[in-house]
Amino acid sequence: MLKAAIILLLLATLVSLFSGLFFLVKDEGRGSRVVNSLSVRVTLTAMTVALIAWGFYSGQLVSHVTW
Questions:
Q1: Is the pLDDT of residue 37 over 70?
Q2: 37 with 23: CB under 8 angstroms?
């Protein structure tokens, strides 16, 4: 369940990234939609990082790195 939420947030971040690119090209940087897209992207990224940190803290996510 936690991994699915992380994947969903990452996909939403990618959608926000490409919508911001579309708004930048279409509005030529004059509209406020680019800023709104950036704020949504930053919020989604912060939520993703917080969810990953909580997953490691609670033990639901485990690192299998050998070093």
A1: yes
A2: yes
- Report, as an integer, the average pLDDT of 24-53: 91
Higher pLDDT, 2 or 29: 2
> Is residue 29 scored above 70 in pLDDT?
no
Residue type, 7: I
Owner of token pair 């930048």: 24
Lookup: tokens for 37: 């897209």
- Give residue 5's identity as a one-letter amino acid code: A
Give me the phi and psi of 36, to 5 degrees please: -65, -40
CB atoms within 10 A of CB 21: 12
Both structure tokens of 27: 């509005």
